[in-house]
Amino acid sequence: MTSTLPRKDRFHLPEGLIYLDGNSLGPLPLGVTERVEAVMRREWGGELIRAWNSAEWMALPQKVGDRIGRLIGAPAGSVATGDTLSIKVYQALAAALRLRPDRRVILSDSGNFPTDLYMAQGLVDLLGQGYEIRTPAPEEVAGAITDEVAAVMLTQVDYRSGRMHDMGALTRAAHDAGAVMIWDLAHSAGAVPVDMAGCGAEFAVGCTYKYLNGGPGAPAFIYVRPDMVEDVAPVLAGWLGHAAPFAFEPDYRPAMSVERLRVGTPPILQLAALDAALDVWDGVTMEEIRAASITLSELFIAEVEARCPQLTLASPRAAEQRGSQVSFAFEHGYAAMQALIAHGVIGDFRAPDIMRFGFTPLYLDETDVRAAVDVMAKVLDDELYRDPAYQTRSRVT
Amino acid sequence: MTSTLPRKDRFHLPEGLIYLDGNSLGPLPLGVTERVEAVMRREWGGELIRAWNSAEWMALPQKVGDRIGRLIGAPAGSVATGDTLSIKVYQALAAALRLRPDRRVILSDSGNFPTDLYMAQGLVDLLGQGYEIRTPAPEEVAGAITDEVAAVMLTQVDYRSGRMHDMGALTRAAHDAGAVMIWDLAHSAGAVPVDMAGCGAEFAVGCTYKYLNGGPGAPAFIYVRPDMVEDVAPVLAGWLGHAAPFAFEPDYRPAMSVERLRVGTPPILQLAALDAALDVWDGVTMEEIRAASITLSELFIAEVEARCPQLTLASPRAAEQRGSQVSFAFEHGYAAMQALIAHGVIGDFRAPDIMRFGFTPLYLDETDVRAAVDVMAKVLDDELYRDPAYQTRSRVT
């Protein structure tokens, strides 16, 4: 089979730039601007309030959820979209605790993305009653799943190192101990093959502005295992999760589907952008993406290790243990990343010393990888990172 | 002083349409499409991840918050934006309960918008421990504020009838009883003058897609009284409410400002649309808006009562007790509204029998009001609402 990758002609990619930060914000796919413009001019401008029906705005969250579902192995009707990933984490966690009322422990790992842990902390502080969060090292999670644990909440791919948890094995371990399993797919959706239906986890959450290229602040998603959705407490019980939102009933009555995890009025402009961005995935399989991602990542590691001895690999060396990013540690990592960016190679930096590079086969090829390493070698060999201009920290890195 | 109203030339308004539903979804202001297009092409497309700094995306939520603050009498730095109104209701309620740990009652009223009550119900169900919600009739709220009440949560302007609560008096009553006051300004912001600083309430929340014309799914806002913001528990403790979001600290440490009520990654496309939409308000005072709104509403009531005897006023007759909408009850209200819409006058319907009309002086004048009543009289006198085409309920009305 001929590869359908890369599809560079489906993206707006600035000339002369190598973009290795699609794991933070994906680039603008072709057609997105036109779609959002049409939503504004024709639908909002021309139809006004009628567009909720006539332009099918009301159906958009579910339509987009189903399109995401296809990329994470989730059946139609099992993924709801909206809000931010932080909110979706809170919903999953709160619902999980309600499913295990006699248990008091949320188990995560010390490498989880901070907002997941912060949201858990906010929930635990609100509940009191002895609830606690445990965060062992990632490799010690399996051993820490005891029968005190109500919910295991893990991010499959570590945001810093790219280390990947084994979803199947950890989900089984959680279930063996009677715990509910929640997967955060922020760095998985569109990056690696995910089999939600197969792994049996109760919940998954994720964002869409990284590998799914939905744009800045694109809506999040939440998956609920279909057989148990009617047992899930929609703790954030907003009107759009109601069985009949426009009946304006005085009491909350949850939708008998994953839509019960919708909350408020959906962000139509962002959803339309995401919907159009998902067109890029038509005809691509996650297996094809994964194979290309490994090829690019392995090439990158080999080239960097050959030409940039100043850097130390901070990701697992074995491809099967890595997501779609590669990280290197470097003492002057912040300044070196600024210098790289100034020279046309965009990755990002994560404290304390991690230079992070995302590999996105939709719009990257081996020529890009080699060219990026050319620039890296120059930045490091000529110590360009010592320029004072690259030392000042901006708020977003 | 010459009136600056209406400013019809600042909006895209379809030819031949009279839009009396700006209280549900405001029309598209001029310049919004261009702004969002620039954000997509130049910033997202051209700057990619760098735009968080270079295009000041990170500062946008606070900038927009300050612009909203000006319209609700709130000082700079006291309004945070993001998420949906439902989420902001939850944050305010949860924080209020934490401020009054010895009390167990949330007091609202039976006319409050359902999602406010649903969110309260979700919170109370999660907390257990004897928490309860009381919903007396709107006119009986003042008498129901006892020393059991932790939080009084009211929508200033009733979504169905337009009846308006007295913010100053009820806030004083809440404080006299030791309760925390939360105002929902969904039908107030941009509709009536609001004096958050003057009324002394601890919290206000609101949405921006109605009178503020921010577009479908535009972000919500939350106000916290500045002197107490450091005592507010950010129960939805997301990373963008952290004092240093990009330090990726393992523990949550809230921002020492209203930004602690931010949660996840801000929806930049929607925020940019809202920011551009707020330009329409430059040089307009809420007093001027209010005066024009009363003129239009009084004319509408007089004309309808003179020419449409089939309808019964369902809003307070006294202008000072009404927001910027007028409702009429009619047995065949649903079908009559469909017929009206088909004949170019857009209002909306709220169960069981309310025909609702919003008055938005930015783009409506007396000629529009008279023309709308011409159509209403014809629909009613000719019983056009009996056409079977107008009987089928769509999901959004």
TrEMBL record, chains A, B:
<feature type="binding site">
    <location>
        <begin position="113"/>
        <end position="116"/>
    </location>
    <ligand>
        <name>pyridoxal 5'-phosphate</name>
    </ligand>
</feature>
<dbReference type="GO" id="GO:0097053">
    <property type="term" value="P:L-kynurenine catabolic process"/>
</dbReference>
<feature type="binding site">
    <location>
        <position position="184"/>
    </location>
    <ligand>
        <name>pyridoxal 5'-phosphate</name>
    </ligand>
</feature>
<feature type="binding site">
    <location>
        <position position="85"/>
    </location>
    <ligand>
        <name>pyridoxal 5'-phosphate</name>
    </ligand>
</feature>
<dbReference type="InterPro" id="IPR015422">
    <property type="entry name" value="PyrdxlP-dep_Trfase_small"/>
</dbReference>
<dbReference type="Pfam" id="PF22580">
    <property type="entry name" value="KYNU_C"/>
</dbReference>
<dbReference type="GO" id="GO:0019441">
    <property type="term" value="P:L-tryptophan catabolic process to kynurenine"/>
</dbReference>
<feature type="binding site">
    <location>
        <position position="187"/>
    </location>
    <ligand>
        <name>pyridoxal 5'-phosphate</name>
    </ligand>
</feature>
<feature type="binding site">
    <location>
        <position position="265"/>
    </location>
    <ligand>
        <name>pyridoxal 5'-phosphate</name>
    </ligand>
</feature>
<keyword id="KW-0662">Pyridine nucleotide biosynthesis</keyword>
<feature type="binding site">
    <location>
        <position position="209"/>
    </location>
    <ligand>
        <name>pyridoxal 5'-phosphate</name>
    </ligand>
</feature>
<comment type="similarity">
    <text>Belongs to the kynureninase family.</text>
</comment>
<comment type="pathway">
    <text>Amino-acid degradation; L-kynurenine degradation; L-alanine and anthranilate from L-kynurenine: step 1/1.</text>
</comment>
<comment type="function">
    <text>Catalyzes the cleavage of L-kynurenine (L-Kyn) and L-3-hydroxykynurenine (L-3OHKyn) into anthranilic acid (AA) and 3-hydroxyanthranilic acid (3-OHAA), respectively.</text>
</comment>
<dbReference type="GO" id="GO:0019805">
    <property type="term" value="P:quinolinate biosynthetic process"/>
</dbReference>
<dbReference type="GO" id="GO:0005737">
    <property type="term" value="C:cytoplasm"/>
</dbReference>
<feature type="binding site">
    <location>
        <position position="86"/>
    </location>
    <ligand>
        <name>pyridoxal 5'-phosphate</name>
    </ligand>
</feature>
<protein>
    <recommendedName>
        <fullName>Kynureninase</fullName>
        <ecNumber>3.7.1.3</ecNumber>
    </recommendedName>
</protein>
<comment type="subunit">
    <text>Homodimer.</text>
</comment>
<comment type="pathway">
    <text>Cofactor biosynthesis; NAD(+) biosynthesis; quinolinate from L-kynurenine: step 2/3.</text>
</comment>
<feature type="modified residue" description="N6-(pyridoxal phosphate)lysine">
    <location>
        <position position="210"/>
    </location>
</feature>
<dbReference type="InterPro" id="IPR015424">
    <property type="entry name" value="PyrdxlP-dep_Trfase"/>
</dbReference>
<keyword id="KW-0663">Pyridoxal phosphate</keyword>
<dbReference type="InterPro" id="IPR015421">
    <property type="entry name" value="PyrdxlP-dep_Trfase_major"/>
</dbReference>
<feature type="binding site">
    <location>
        <position position="239"/>
    </location>
    <ligand>
        <name>pyridoxal 5'-phosphate</name>
    </ligand>
</feature>
<dbReference type="GO" id="GO:0030170">
    <property type="term" value="F:pyridoxal phosphate binding"/>
</dbReference>
<keyword id="KW-0378">Hydrolase</keyword>
<feature type="binding site">
    <location>
        <position position="155"/>
    </location>
    <ligand>
        <name>pyridoxal 5'-phosphate</name>
    </ligand>
</feature>
<dbReference type="GO" id="GO:0009435">
    <property type="term" value="P:NAD+ biosynthetic process"/>
</dbReference>
<dbReference type="InterPro" id="IPR010111">
    <property type="entry name" value="Kynureninase"/>
</dbReference>
<dbReference type="GO" id="GO:0030429">
    <property type="term" value="F:kynureninase activity"/>
</dbReference>
<dbReference type="GO" id="GO:0043420">
    <property type="term" value="P:anthranilate metabolic process"/>
</dbReference>
